[in-house]
Write a structure and sequence with these properties.
The complex is a heterodimer of chains A (33) and B (493).
Chain A lengths: L2 H23 L8
Chain B lengths: L10 H20 L5 H6 L6 H12 L2 H14 L4 H29 L4 H8 L5 H38 L3 H49 L2 H9 L4 H4 L7 H13 L9 H9 L6 H15 L3 H12 L9 H9 L2 H39 L5 H24 L5 H25 L5 H20 L1 H6 L2 H24 L9
Helix pairs in contact in B: 1-8, 1-16, 3-8, 3-12, 3-13, 3-16, 4-14, 4-16, 5-11, 5-12, 5-13, 5-18, 6-7, 7-8, 7-16, 7-17, 7-18, 7-19, 8-13, 8-14, 8-16, 8-17, 9-14, 12-16, 14-15, 15-16, 16-17, 18-19, 18-21, 19-21
The chains are: A mainly alpha (33), B mainly alpha (493).
Chain lengths: 33, 493
């Protein structure tokens, strides 16, 4: 399997997980106001 | 390989149990129905878990366990671009729209998206506000009827492949079951069944590829089996280079994410959440579901390619074929019920949106604002039956792949409602004229793009029409904001 495929498929999963956790961690009660 | 080869009656055990549970949900919810608010939004009483799982189950249609694995079976790993775009779209929708839409619709007393668009611009002339309601309602009916029809086509195909039932009868069976529990229990029944369906869908998307990869001797065993499919199957570029890759493969697939910003059947979940502060928990649950289920669905198609080779005549049937190949009959029955669940959980939510347009947006708002609750519930049930019947008729006349039918409706709704909704919630200079321009340009550009092969081949319809609608909403808002003053979106506080 080409390395770029592995990096994009696996790396995007990790990045979106981190993005979600960051979004939740910085979320204020009133949304993102 | 013939998908309809033989009928394994043990499949019926899991599948039959699933259908009975759905009808029980419909009957139970019908006893709790008191008013139109209950039928259309479950009285805004959803907790974060049910709102999030229901949003995910409704968001992922027959496309999720049939269309996407089929596309991955045919094209390979490049389908993961769609998955990445979709996950980002789900995150963006929960992050930027959910909370504000929940808060605004409660403040305005809006039950539907057309309600919201009309009420949002209180200072605009009456005729303009009425136009926003009527045009958004027409857009809903235009795109949703084909979208629901696509779900029924998926149900028919699936029952044909699994039980050998004629595809036309399969469509009728799927449509009648969905119609029955939606008509009886309204939004509440739809949400209860969605939660069951959403969990089943995630379980199938997670477990089926894992079982397949283990059977193939691990990831390396799977890759060895995939070698004959060629280099392009394993590559993210699908053999394309330069602008053909960037616009045709990567951006076109990522653009699936735009659609999440404008799907009324998903937006109604945000509107129904009990407390606005629960949106954060809902976002977390929805993203957990996405990260578990969405990376599994294309893997189903890839594992199927490793196991069956390239001999399956209808790629959209790889999921049921793989389930029958890998697990005992009754578990395969449950897994196939998961795919039927994907179809039903979307069709039921879309039927509620069409029903709400017919009853709330037309009957109540335009003709009988003081109609009694019992009459509105009765009319909602009639509207659900009529909408199901029309969608079923459309399904009989349509031979497009589920993938194509869904892509068109997804793009149409996403670009007609996404930019106008996002901007009306988040940008104070948005005007009623800007929203009208965004909705019209989104719809018209979709119809033109779909019918013009040069445009369709040059740039992906989802990307192009979203950008056009966004540009029109911004430009017309800027041009009219100075004179419009009170037509602008009110303060968000």
């Amino acid at each position: 399997m080409p390395l770029h495929t592995l990096l994009i498929v696996g790396g995007s999963w990790v990045l979106i997980l981190l993005l979600t956790l960051w979004r939740i961690a910085t979320w204020k009660d009133g949304g993102d106001e | 390989m013939d998908p309809a080869a033989g009928t394994d009656w043990s499949l019926f055990i899991g599948f039959g149990a699933y259908l009975i549970v759905l009808l029980i949900c419909g009957l139970t919810a019908s006893t709790l129905m008191k008013g139109l608010d209950d039928f259309l939004l479950a009285g805004r009483r959803l907790g974060p878990l049910s709102a999030a799982i229901s949003e995910r189950a409704s968001g992922e249609s027959a496309w999720f366990l049939l269309g996407l694995p089929g596309a991955a079976y045919a094209a390979g790993f490049t389908e993961f671009w769609s998955v990445i775009g979709i996950a980002l779209g789900i995150l963006a929708s929960w992050s930027f729209i959910a909370f504000h839409l929940r808060k605004q619709t409660e403040k305005l007393g809006a039950l539907t998206l057309p309600d919201y668009f009309e009420m949002r611009f209180a200072g605009a002339p009456f005729a303009l506000r009425r136009s926003l309601r009527i045009i958004s309602m027409l857009i809903i009916i235009l795109f949703y009827m084909g979208y629901v029809a696509a779900q029924f086509v998926g149900g028919g195909k699936l029952l044909n492949a699994t039980f050998g039932i004629d595809a036309s009868w399969g469509m009728v069976i799927g449509a009648v079951v969905v119609m029955l529990y939606t008509m009886l229990g309204g939004f509440l029944a739809v949400v209860w069944t969605d939660v069951i369906q959403g969990l089943m869908m995630a379980a199938v998307a997670l477990l089926l590829p894992i079982i397949g990869i283990v059977k193939l001797g691990g990831p390396q065993g799977m890759l060895d089996k995939l070698a004959p499919m060629g280099e392009n199957f394993l590559s993210m570029s699908a053999g394309k280079t330069g602008s053909a890759f960037i616009f045709g493969v990567m951006l076109g697939s990522l653009a699936w994410g735009f659609g999440y910003l404008g799907q009324p059947h998903l937006l109604s979940r945000y509107m129904a959440i009990k407390r606005a502060v629960d949106v954060k928990r809902g976002a977390f649950i929805a993203m957990a579901w996405t990260l578990i289920a969405y990376w599994g669905a294309p893997l189903i198609g890839i594992v199927a390619a490793a196991i069956f080779g390239s001999g399956i005549s209808d790629p959209e049937m790889v999921m049921p074929l793989l389930a029958r190949e890998l697990v005992p009959g009754w578990i395969a029955g449950l897994m196939i019920a998961g795919a039927v669940a994907a179809m039903m959980s979307t069709a039921d939510s879309q039927l509620i949106v069409v029903t709400s347009s017919l009853v709330e947006d037309i009957y109540v708002r335009l003709f009988k604002p003081d109609a009694p609750s019992h009459r509105l519930i009765f009319l909602s049930r009639v509207a659900t039956v009529v909408a199901s019947g029309v969608a079923l008729l459309l399904a009989f006349g349509n031979e497009d792949l589920i993938f194509d039918m869904v892509a068109y409706a997804w793009s149409g709704l996403g670009s007609s409602f996404g930019p106008p909704l996002l901007l009306s919630l988040r940008w104070k200079r948005t005007t009623a004229w800007g929203v009208l321009a965004g909705m019209l340009s989104g719809t018209i550009s979709n119809i033109v793009w779909k019918g013009t092969s040069v445009l369709n081949e040059g740039l992906d319809i989802k990307l192009a029409t979203f950008v056009i609608s966004l540009a029109c909403t911004v430009l017309v808002s800027l041009l009219t904001s100075r004179s419009a003053g009170p037509h602008r979106a009110e303060s968000l506080s």
